[in-house]
Amino acid sequence: MNARSVVLALISMLMSGLAWAQERPDAFPSRSIKIVVPFPAGGPSDVLARMIGAKMSEEWGQPVVVENRPGANTVLGAQQVVKSAPDGYTLLMAIDSTLTMNQYLYRTPPYDPFNDFAPITLTAKTMVLLIVNAASDVKTVKDLIAKAKAQPGKLNYGAGTITTKRTGYLFNKAAGIETVLVPYNGSAEVAQGVLTRSVDFSFDGVSASLSLIQSGQFRVLAKLDPRPFPPVPDLPLITAEVPALDEITVWLGLVAPKGTPARIIDKLQAEVAKVLADPAIKTKADASGLFPATSTPAEFTAFIRKEAQRWSTVVQEIGMKYD
After folding, report:
1. How far apart are CA 1 and CA 13, in angstroms?
2. What is the pTM of this model?
């Protein structure tokens, strides 16, 4: 490439950068938006991202594309967004572990959750369930604990996020049992593990397992927070049998790359809040155990920091490390 071509290329890049930096709030979005989901298709974050994306596309007249980028405990998806232009056109549907736990799991964290992202809004606090295959002889939480005590180290459980992996550890500790973690990359894989009986039980969100629960192929033993779960209206709370176990939810939220203009962050937040307040969307999400929840960017920023502080001790106690 000659000198003139290099100069022209640099000018083109500069003009492109100025274009997004100076884009008027009422001009955003002028092209397609991408929401990166750091899990395979079918899990809670994927389902919610597609609900939000479809409605945003309808409202704004621009495509909203969901891109699944699973792997490395959500690190791959997070890094993709960190490296993207801070223009509001690439977003991350982050899970709690992405923003509050990964920094404690790596000696040299691959990104800074506090300084590499611009928080937009909390999007959901999902329900975690304790699930077995319907063909299992385990009918209740009490049955599961009794079986685990009779066969120490023989039962295994599936989990696809740091939060649900941690839940299994806390369950073992609170119930005085020893079961073995089988790690998966996301909820769809966890559901398949329960379906094929590759694992004896699982801790997971609702969305990937809902159809299997409704068809009678999965038996839900308990929920890990007190909110109603309409598909199984009389579902017990796990603390009824394991009082030492705290209530646990998995939360999701949207973030953008650091440096995204505040006016664009605010416009995205307002639109997502509007979408998740839509009665049809809320009803559909609640039925899937997603339970929409929103916040301002400032509230979400404070929430992330508080959650990170809360879980740092637990992660260190478990001793989970990935490098």
Report:
1. 16
2. 0.80
298 CB-contact burial (10 Å; exposed 0-12 / middle 13-18 / buried 19+): exposed
* Structure-block tokens of residue 52: 């939000």
Per-residue pLDDT tens over the stretch 204-260: 988 889 999 999 999 999 999 999 888 899 999 999 999 999 888 889 999 999 999
Neighbours of 188 (CB within 10 A): 21
Task: Please write down the HEC assignment for all residues of the chain.
Answer: CCHHHHHHHHHHHHHHHHHHHCCCHHHCCCCCEEEEECCCCCCHHHHHHHHHHHHHHHHHCCCEEEEECCCHHHHHHHHHHHCCCCCCCEEEEEEHHHHHCHHHHCCCCCCCCCCCEEEEEEEEEEECEEEEECCCCCCCHHHHHHHHHHCCCCCEEEECCHHHHHHHHHHHHHHCCCCEEEECCCHHHHHHHHHCCCCCEEEECCCCCHHHHHCCCEEEEEECCCCCCCCCCCCCEHHHCCCCCCCCEEEEEEEEECCCCHHHHHHHHHHHHHHHHCHHHHHHHHHCCCCECCCCHHHHHHHHHHHHHHHHHHHHHHCCCCC
pLDDT digits (tens, 9 = 90+) for 34-48: 999 999 888 889 999
- Residue 13 corresponds to which tokens in the numbers above? 């890049």
CA 160 to chain centre: 10
Alpha carbon separation from 178 to 30, 148, 163, 286 (Å, rounded): 54, 7, 18, 33
Contact 43, 185 (CB under 8 A): no
List, in sequence order, every residue forming a beta bridge with 9; answer none if it has no partner: none
Name the token pair of 232: 């199984």
Distance separating alpha carbons of residues 132 and 267, to the nearest angstrom: 42
Cis amide bond preceding 86, omega within 30: no
Check residue 246 and report its DSSP letter: P
29 upstream amide cis, omega within 30 of 0? yes
Number of residues in the chain: 323
Query: In angstroms, rounded to a whole number, what is the distance separating the alpha carbons of residues 220 and 203?
Result: 10
